[in-house]
Amino acid sequence: MKAYWFDNLPGDQREPHNSGRDVDPDYLAKLGVIYHNVPDVSGVDAIATSRNYKNRDEITVSPEKMGDIYEEKVKSFFHEHLHEDEEIRYILDGGGYFDVRSEGDEWVRIWLEKGDLIILPSGIYHRFTTDEQNYTKAMRLFKDEPKWTPLNRGNETDTNQYRQEYIKARQSLAAQ
Prior knowledge:
9-stranded antiparallel β-sheet
């Protein structure tokens, strides 16, 4: 895992867009992002049990697996959105970027590769893209039935219950 501030320069979303300013993992934790390096699936099983994740599946995001819809899918994953559930991803192979919004509404880019597991809290604005290799194989974990509904950022998501709970939790943490 490598985290840094997104450079916001023009170019393909799959490029690193590394500003050269690293982000400390403690700052990610302050945003509610949980990261683990998990060398094998037995470690994922332990995390799943401890956090009550009951379901999982696997997804491969690549031109070979997705064919003609690959570019469209990668662009749709890159729309800024939130979820009403945690988003948990374990990278089985390849790599990709999760971008999360900072307290100042800037993008923090998190590059993940094989063995990395990330948990994004419900209500955090984020987006995903493959890296320049155009290949990510990931395990998706869920507390209940699989739910992938992205709520694209807009006025209605700013007042969403889960967004408000996320903001309140961050404010509470900052006050401590």
